[in-house]
Amino acid sequence: MLSERRLEVLRAIVQDYVGTEEPVGSKALTERHQLGVSPATVRNDMAALEEEGFIAQPHTSAGRIPTDKGYRLFVDKLAAVKPLSGPERRAIHSFLDSAVDLDDVVARTVRLLAQLTRQVAVVQYPSLTRSTVRHVELLSLAPARLMLVLITDTGRVEQRMIDCPAPFGETSLADLRARLNSRVVGRRFTDVPQLVQDLPESFETEDRGTVSTVLSVLLETLVEETEERLMIGGTANLTRFGHDFPLTIRPVLEALEEQVVLLKLLGEAKDSSMTVRIGHENAHEGLTSTSVVAVGYGSGDEAVAKLGVVGPTRMDYPGTMGAVRAVARYVGQILAES
Amino acid sequence: MLSERRLEVLRAIVQDYVGTEEPVGSKALTERHQLGVSPATVRNDMAALEEEGFIAQPHTSAGRIPTDKGYRLFVDKLAAVKPLSGPERRAIHSFLDSAVDLDDVVARTVRLLAQLTRQVAVVQYPSLTRSTVRHVELLSLAPARLMLVLITDTGRVEQRMIDCPAPFGETSLADLRARLNSRVVGRRFTDVPQLVQDLPESFETEDRGTVSTVLSVLLETLVEETEERLMIGGTANLTRFGHDFPLTIRPVLEALEEQVVLLKLLGEAKDSSMTVRIGHENAHEGLTSTSVVAVGYGSGDEAVAKLGVVGPTRMDYPGTMGAVRAVARYVGQILAES
DNA sequence: CCTGGCACTCGCCCTGTCCGAGTGCCAAAC
DNA sequence: GTTTGGCACTCGGACAGGGCGAGTGCCAGG
Fold first, then answer.
1. Are B20 and B31 within 8 A, CB to CB?
2. With the C-alpha atoms ordered B97, B100, B105, B108, is the resulting torsion angle positive or negative?
3. CA triplet B161, B166, B171: central angle to 5 degrees?
4. B239 at A interface, C-beta within 8 A
5. Are the C-beta atoms of B13 and B47 separated by less than 8 Å?
6. pTM: predicted TM-score of the whole model, two decimal places
7. Distance from CA of B232 to the nearest CA of A (A)
8. Are A106 and A231 a contacting pair, CB within 8 Å?
9. DSSP percent split of chain A into helix, strand, coil, nearest 5
10. Is the CB of residue B64 inside 7 Å of nucleic acid strand D?
11. How many cross-chain Cβ pairs, A to B, lie less than 8 Å apart?
């Protein structure tokens, strides 16, 4: 096990490197921190830390920089989440309080996170798996063409076109609409499939095809709707990444455009507790030089979605984690109130 | 006025510079193009072109590069919009055909444009101002509580809750729904107000309050939800910008995050005809080293929204314009069909 | 008006040198 | 055993100078 002082040295290295973005040497370390020992001692400690893989040298005779493993140790053992300052808290509150609807809450949260952390922010929309159906509407646009409108209790509306296999009369339509609604209104999305399973059977033979079509479109819509959306922002902060731009930034931008990747990224975070993925811990290869700090948020006890930030592995972990946690908590409150 | 050959020289310079990204000299020009004159002549022409401000030298004794003014002349007089290749057309069709709803159409359009042009794509959601009403639906959720659902010809759906001043019977509801639809279906949003103006009068006194309420909510929706949204994609293509990265790319990313800026940018484009804004022609200062190619698209004759791409001033204008136009046309078709 | 020739300019690249931060090791001190 | 100061060494970065070549402008002749 590493001695107390060596951990202290690692902490100092991480802090200095994050601040200066330059490899940090033994002399500079002793000058900037009160370690109470001489540079030579620090050098020995550094050699040990390097031996164990916590730090590395970009080239011989340069200072040391933390490795992913070093950052990992840092966030696990050495870093305290830094609470936000009073003004920052107030900024969060006043900024989020003026949101008018769900879209607005999410949009504002993204901006806020991006500003506070000066990194790329990612916010997942509250998941709909627990939503219920408020109403299903069917409209006849043409003899064999229907429109399905699905309204959820969260106020979201989805609509789909349906081409029917056979013309479908107004009375049949009204009938289907009524029966459909009586069965599914107020029920959870996940329960709908079995609730409508036997519906076609109760119709005339000639209409069964259409009814089945309508139902399958409905089920499809429910699945798609449950699919999780997200919003990102603060990509301009990527320009602060480093000097070796194009190569670093490009795969990150590409990854950020793949919602699937991001969803997986956030999804890996455990429910509600904060998760930090550092560098190569990220599965996606475009993100091996970035870290992801994510946490769940929700209106009640359980997390309904995740939010977080993506930044260089060389980031201010305590500050970032503090900001992410604070924002998540307040967004949860906002959602609970509305 | 510039002679025919000088214009030809300018065209050659633009083409070469776009291709190589390097200042182009007189000798290289005569080698790569059949101008039928010697380098010396070209040099004279270049001197003239520079005198007029169409081209410039980055430093003495380097080749020339086009100025914004040069690009302007190029797109106005020298460039023919390049039609897409067969495979490209087919790719557009098959890619867009599989879209399931409006969101999907827009999302796919963004990806498509970004891929085809290898630049940043911006697509505005079909605006509601020029849209027409496809259907208005009224649902009774509770004795004195209605839901209004508005469906536009572009496939967009908006919904609002209405608290009625008095209970409203099912028959009255059906009556209102029918009359409302018969008046406004197929009409433009802007025409709706006067079309429904006298509607309350034709109802029983006791229902008039509710009818008025419904109408005012409808009108409110038409106005409020004119708010325009957009989607962007292909930001990773920004990395192909140039070598002088951070400084160039940062303001662009920032501008792209400001929906307001982008909307204004697209808005400047004239109705339906393609607009190209080059470098400093863009009002926003973060975009002075970019060009914007935008065009309106719509389901019918007139444009309901804009789409376009943002790229470096040094872009392949004919190809980009071709792609933008082709995509806009096909998206228009898709919207018209659905 | 075009062309070939010519002298000139100037940025880029390559090389060599210097400098200093930082290291590792070691022997002495605590 | 750990810490410390000393010392030799390494290596990357900054800087300066020189050669190169693309490209130019100008001019005299076709």
1. no
2. negative
3. 85
4. yes
5. no
6. 0.80
7. 10
8. yes
9. 55, 20, 30
10. yes
11. 71
How many C-beta atoms surround the C-beta of residue A143 within 10 A?
11
- In DSSP terms, A307 is beta-bridged to A123, A295
Is A26 in contact with A13 (CB distance < 8 Å)?
no
DSSP state of A75: I
Contacts of B250 in chain A (CB under 8 A): 236, 239
Measuring CA to CA, which residue among B228, B235, B129 is closest to residue B188? B129
What single letter denotes the amino acid at residue A14?
A: V
CA angle B20, B25, B28 (to 5 degrees): 70
Question: One digit per residue, pLDDT tens: chain A, 338 residues?
Answer: 567 888 999 999 999 999 888 899 888 888 888 888 888 898 999 999 998 899 999 888 788 999 999 999 999 988 889 999 999 999 999 999 887 677 788 999 999 999 999 999 999 987 666 677 878 888 877 778 888 888 776 666 777 888 888 888 888 888 888 888 888 888 888 888 888 888 888 888 888 888 898 889 888 888 776 667 889 999 999 888 766 666 678 889 999 988 888 888 887 766 668 999 999 999 888 898 899 999 998 776 666 788 999 999 999 999 999 999 999 999 988 877 65
Nearest residue on chain A to B153, judged by CA atoms? A141
Looking up tokens 């709909």 gives A128
Token pair 């776009």 is at which residue? Answer: B18
DSSP secondary structure code for residue A125 in this structure: P
**How far apart, in whole angstroms, are the C-alpha atoms of residue A283 and residue A265?**
8
Q: What is the dihedral of CA B308, B314, B315, B317, to 10 degrees?
A: 80
Beta strands, E only, chain A: 55-56, 65-66, 120-124, 133-142, 145-152, 157-163, 230-233, 275-278, 290-297, 305-312
**Paired tokens of B19:** 């291709």
The predicted-structure confidence for B4-30, as pLDDT tens digits, reads as follows: 888 999 999 999 999 888 899 988 888
User: What is the distance in angstroms measured between the alpha-carbon CA of A42 and the sugar C1' of D16?
Assistant: 37
Q: How far is the CA of A315 from the C1' of C25 (A)?
A: 35
Does the CB of A166 have a partner CB in chain B at under 8 Å? no
| Stretch B277-291: mean pLDDT | 90
Going by C-alpha positions, the residue among B104, B153, B112 that lies closest to residue B336 is B153
- Nearest residue to nucleotide D11, by CA–C1' distance, is A61
Instruction: Check residue A242 and give its pLDDT.
Output: 66
Give helix A245-257 / helix B245-257 axis angle, nearest 10°: 20
Amino acid making up residue A29: L
Q: At what angle do helices B205-224 and B170-184 cross, to 10 degrees?
A: 50
Look at B155 and A159 and tell me if their CB atoms are within 8 Å. Answer: yes
DSSP 3-state of B141: strand
